[in-house]
Amino acid sequence: MSGTNREPEIVTRNGKPVAVIVPIKDYEELLERAEDAEDVAWLKRARKKKLNYRPLEEYLTKRNGK
Predict the structure, then answer these.
(1) What total number of domains does the chain contain?
(2) How far is CA 21 from the centre of its chain?
(3) With contact defined as beta carbons under 8 Å apart, do 55 and 42 qualify?
(4) CA angle 57, 58, 63 (to 5 degrees)
(5) pLDDT tens for residues 41-59?
(6) Is 48 inside any structural domain?
(7) Which residue segment(s) compose the domain that 29 sits in?
(8) What is the Cα–Cα distance from 64 to 9, expressed in whole angstroms?
């Protein structure tokens, strides 16, 4: 695959696709998008949880073991 070819190369085994070769920049972009999607999914789950508020003093007392 030449450095200017931006098209993915499909690798086959017994006539069936088994892998894809993509330029590293495309691969890195795919990873970034997957990580972003995971972050969005986590944020959506976190927003559904009930929030528990407490005074700062209570938190600090419990945190410091007093």
Answers:
(1) 1
(2) 21
(3) no
(4) 95
(5) 999 998 898 888 899 999 9
(6) yes
(7) 23-63
(8) 58
